[in-house]
Amino acid sequence: MSNILKYVEDNPKETQRLIGLEYEQLQQLIQNAERLHHEKQILLESKKVRIIAGGGGRKPKLSMIEQIILTLVYLRHMTTFQLLGIQFGVSESTANDTFNYWLPNLRELLPSSLLEQVKKTLLTMK
């Protein structure tokens, strides 16, 4: 479990500052994102032509919740993927791949105004 996830679970009132969402909103977003992810995986699996049975391969280092939080932390703080990788215990490329997978899914779930609240824009950084 990443330190950020543990901190958020131990201090739910700090979630707004770290991620840009209230703790209850984060929990609801995680539930909806997991549901959307499973639906997309089922659809993707149904289109595959398999020679070898599924279920093989290396398991991901980050749980689904940690992947979602990694994406939200990036949107909130606009840090580098190298630092994100260090924070979450994965490589820079894994952090980048995780972000690029979850961003379109979160765009489907969050209204654009809420997504912009989570994401710090360049105007607020000046």
Overview of the structural elements:
With 126 residues, this protein is mostly helical. It has helices spanning 3-10, 15-19, 23-47, 64-77, 81-88, 92-109, 112-118, 122-125. It is built from eight helices and no strands. The mean pLDDT is 85. The termini are far apart. It is globular. It has a domain at 62-119.
Mean pLDDT: 85
> What percent of the residues sit in helical stretches (DSSP H or I)?
over 70%
Sheet with the most strands, sense and barrel status: none
**SS-derived structural category:** mainly alpha
Question: Helices, strands, pairings?
Answer:
Layout: H1 3-10, H2 15-19, H3 23-47, H4 64-77, H5 81-88, H6 92-109, H7 112-118, H8 122-125
Which terms summarize this structure?
126 residues; mainly alpha; 8 helices; globular
